[in-house]
Write the structure tokens for this entry.
Amino acid sequence: MARLATRSGQRTRALRTAAVAGGGLATAALATSALCTLALSGRRGQDEDSAATLARRAFAAGGPIHGVGFGVLTGVLALAGLRTGELPRPVAILGLISAASGLLSPLYFVKEAAGWFIPVGRFSGLLVSAIAGVRLGRHSR
């Protein structure tokens, strides 16, 4: 992602930095969610209050917080793909919409009904990533 951002023309440093930061946040959030979920299988998972706290933390990290990192990453992919012409315009636009959904996912903490941003950002971002992976993989040969 950072290499694609570098090829995208103007403001490549900012895009590269965003790709690395977004990827780092997404990775750290999923790792945190996994560790909280793992802790549920131990003695802390036996206590009802502790288990509820761990489950909430696992959801927060793996849902809205991961959504922000993944949204940034998807946004960089979409913008860089659009600038370089390596992604079709409709795919890049879907990526930008996906990125916005991911970035809005923390609104869940304010209004539970905003939780729909989480799966919208996640699934559309995965679709854009899959299409980009196929297209960019063909170009690198």
About this structure: The mean pLDDT is 92. The two ends are 17 Å apart (CA to CA). Residues 48-84 form the longest helix (37 residues). DSSP finds five helices and no strands in the chain.
